[in-house]
Automatic annotation (TrEMBL), chain A:
The keyword Transmembrane helix applies. This is Heme exporter protein C. Residues 18-185 form the Cytochrome c assembly protein domain. Required for the export of heme to the periplasm for the biogenesis of c-type cytochromes.
Length: 257, 228
């Protein structure tokens, strides 16, 4: 028999609350350093693009937001599957908190894409395959949030959203592929996204920094919101009251000293 | 008491649903009326220019048929949920897959199929070229069945909620997108005189996928809705 203790630990909100508390600074500090550092590097020190001038610099926010937003959906769907299969409460909480974060990132990538599109393509919006796919992803996130809010019963809300998230995850490849196909049918690929062409290493390095920074910040946010969710759900339990009440005098003592 | 086999239960549910739909009338007539009225709105909004309408007709017909199908889906499990039939189905020793399949098939026969049959008429009033009409009917036949399957997932998730209607459209419409893309593209290809069979084949593939997977999601969603 394999030892499953490591796995069962994840079923305990108490263990997760303590564990994630220790993990928080390890995500927040490098995440902020990488993201802010990458932005400063990309905005001030990278030479301007041959064709696009300075407008390409929005890539340092746009690409990480889009990439993490897509990864976040698959992460949410995985949490949904874990919740449905092993009835893990923690997975339901993670699933619930990922949806608004993912929707915000999708929205951010759409807005930065529009801002980038205006000087580059001369228009705020192009019915391009990728833009359309991200817009649909945004709608999928909003659908999950709307479904979650419609339920009064928390357990039923989590399970219903889990089913929808999994159905969405099965559909996402089909949607992407159909939108890609739809785009190639209607328009010749005259506008090439910068990502398609080769990108110069001097531009790529800050992008890698902001991209990894964004992943870390995403993890940090998920942990923060999940901890808030744990506090909300377990507020009547003894361990949480003990922990929160004993933490506070220690904090104030430090501040007093 | 004689125990019924799976196929007997399948036929029994199909017959019961078809009979109640035919007797109430509104169940199959309302989506048709919606389809006709909304298609009438488009020339009024866009203008009566025949060439412009002909260009837009495949897209309009497909979008409106999709909306009509979605409207009809809301009532798919509603009455069975309200009177407790759904609970009995879930408690019965029968596997849920064939039961759900029978419900969806009955729903498609009373909402999707009439839409397909009426679409040539609306294609004519929207000035669509005749060469596209047969493909329109075939693409709607396959496509509306897929829409019924996807819609059933949304209906099962929202059946226990008081204000399910608008929510259903929010969660289901993004999932309808591939069907819309391939369906309207097949009609446009037929009008342009290029090959349309590959596009119809892709719709067929989506249909197969929906038949295989959607009833499982529907059964899971119904269990959640009844349990809460």
């Amino acid at each position: 028999m394999a030892n499953w203790a490591w796995f069962h630990k994840w079923g305990s909100p108490r263990w997760f609350y303590q564990f994630s508390g220790r993990l928080l600074p390890w995500l927040a500090v490098p995440g902020l350093l990488l993201f802010i550092g990458g932005c400063v590097w990309g905005l001030l020190f990278v030479p301007p693009d041959f064709k696009q001038g300075n407008s390409f610099r929005i890539i340092y926010v746009h690409v990480p937001a889009a990439a993490v937003a897509m990864g976040a959906y698959m992460f949410m769907a995985t949490a949904a599957a874990v919740h449905l299969i092993w009835r893990m409460k923690l997975a339901a909480m993670v699933m619930k908190v990922v949806a608004p974060i993912g929707a915000s990132l999708t929205f951010l990538s759409l807005v930065t894409g529009a801002v980038w599109g205006k000087p580059t393509w001369g228009t705020w919006w192009v019915w391009d395959a990728r833009i359309t796919s991200v817009l649909i992803l945004f709608f999928l996130y909003l659908g999950i949030i709307a479904l979650h809010q419609a339920f009064e019963n928390r357990e039923a809300a989590a399970k219903a959203c889990a089913v929808l998230a999994i159905v969405g995850a099965v559909n996402i490849p089909i949607i992407y592929w159909s939108v890609e196909w739809w785009y190639s049918l209607h328009q010749p690929a005259s506008i090439k996204f910068i990502g398609e062409s080769t990108i110069h290493p001097t531009m790529l390095r800050p992008l890698m920094a902001t991209l990894s920074g964004m992943y870390l910040l995403f993890g940090w946010l998920v942990l923060l919101y999940t901890r808030a969710e744990i506090i909300d759900r377990e507020r009547n339990t003894r361990w949480l009251q003990d922990m929160l009440l004993t933490d506070r005098p220690a904090d104030s003592a430090e501040r007093g000293a | 008491m004689k125990r019924m086999g799976v196929s007997a239960v399948f036929v029994a549910i199909l017959r019961r649903d078809l009979r109640s739909a035919l007797r109430s009338g509104s169940e199959w007539a309302n989506p048709l009326l919606f389809f006709a009225i909304v298609c009438t709105l488009f020339p009024l909004g866009i203008g009566p220019d025949a060439r412009q309408l002909a260009l837009l007709a495949p897209g309009i017909l497909w979008v409106v048929a999709l909306l009509a199908s979605m409207m009809a889906t809301d009532s798919l499990f509603r009455s069975d949920y309200d009177d407790g039939t759904l609970e009995q189905m879930l408690l019965s020793p029968m596997p849920m897959y064939p039961l759900v399949l029978a419900k969806i098939l009955a729903h498609w026969l009373t909402s999707g199929l009439p839409l397909c049959l009426m679409s040539p008429l609306l294609a004519v009033i929207l000035q669509m070229p005749m060469s596209g009409v047969p493909v329109l009917v075939v693409s709607l036949l396959i496509g509306s069945a897929i829409l019924s399957f996807i819609g059933a997932i949304g209906a099962a998730l929202t059946v226990g909620l008081r204000k399910g209607g608008l929510l259903l459209s929010l969660i289901v419409l993004p999932l309808y997108i591939p069907v819309l893309i391939f369906g309207s593209a097949a009609v446009k290809s037929a009008i342009d005189g290029v090959v349309y069979l590959p596009t119809l084949a892709l719709l067929g593939a989506l249909f197969m996928l929906a038949v295989a997977l959607a009833p499982l999601a529907v059964a899971g969603a119904l269990r959640i809705s009844v349990d809460q």
